[in-house]
Amino acid sequence: MASVAVLEIVTPENWCEDGYLLANPDLATAAANGLDIHTHFQEFGLQERRLQFSRAFLNDRPHRDRLKYERFKTVLSEARGAAGEFRFVHEDGAFPVHYGGNAYSFEDYERESANLGLGEFVREVEAHPHKDYLDIGCGLRNIIHDNCLYLEVYPSRTADIIMEPACQYPIRSNSLDGISCLAVLEHVEKPWLVAAEIRRMLAPGGLAFIDWPFLQPVHGYPNHYYNSTRYGLGQMFSEGFEHITLETYPNQTPEYVLSWLLRGWSAALTSDDVRREFGKMTVDQMIKEPPGGKFWKRLAQASPDDAKMTFAAGNTLIARKI
């Protein structure tokens, strides 16, 4: 299969008890104490539109991991990347593999990110099943593809490569047709080394898909080092790249910054009196407007590009190696 859905909204038709438990760790203790998981789904999960790991993802994974490793084994380089050991995590000759010393654990994070990825990258991967791609800092992807390697610094369930935090990757030079690195560069110690590595790993003509936040609060523990302006993102990927797109995407426009800052600040206040006082300010109307809603779209439509750039939540780069 070319791709597989990892997470899905659980329904009576697709119900999978193992997948439901894995996707809802808050039920683990109750299940150990005798909670009937299917009853919980019927009474709460269905109405709450809870997620589960799909049967296709859970049942087909061993076979898929062996086939995928066979496809990518010539792309991997045990001599590069983090210093230290290389080992197979579950089964010899199959993904996932581990490079270097200690990776992070789930406990190091507030929560695991889970999303579809950048649309342009996903469409590129799906349109060229014969080409090879890499997703750096994948988190838990909702959909995974057989022609894309997924790399993380903790044992995400969708990671093919798990490695200690480092800025060199165990991939051969000039071996990939596209690389995605979304909301990652703010979390690495030396993002300029990652940019150089992306250039090294891409074959001539290969595409880089980069998302790097600008005006965003500290997030994504345990580390958050650098935010970047649009100018900085362009400069970081100037040598050896031809820029195709460098702009503020719709999910990066200023309302996301305002909503994040104001909601977070309000929630963090320790005094109810101060919080109520803060809520009476005119910003209270702003924080109730959902990002991307009609109100903010009217503002975005009336905002020139330089205003979007100045107040952006992030910027996106698509570049071709030359």
Characterize the structure shown:
This protein is an alpha/beta fold. The chain folds into three domains: 1-61, no CATH class; 73-249 and 314-321, Rossmann fold, CATH 3.40.50; 255-302, no CATH class. It contains twelve helices and 15 strands. The protein has helices spanning 17-23, 28-32, 37-48, 55-72, 119-127, 191-201, 230-236, 254-268, 272-279, 283-288, 294-301, 305-310; strands at residues 3-5, 7-9, 51-53, 86-88, 97-99, 114-115, 133-136, 140-141, 143-145, 148-152, 161-163, 176-182, 202-213, 241-247, 314-321. The strands form four sheets. The protein has a nine-stranded mixed sheet, with helices on both faces. The protein has a two-stranded antiparallel ribbon with strand order 1-9. The longest helix is centred in the first third of the chain and has 18 residues, at 55-72.
What distinguishing features does this structure have?
322 residues, nine-stranded mixed β-sheet, two-stranded antiparallel sheet, Rossmann fold, alpha/beta
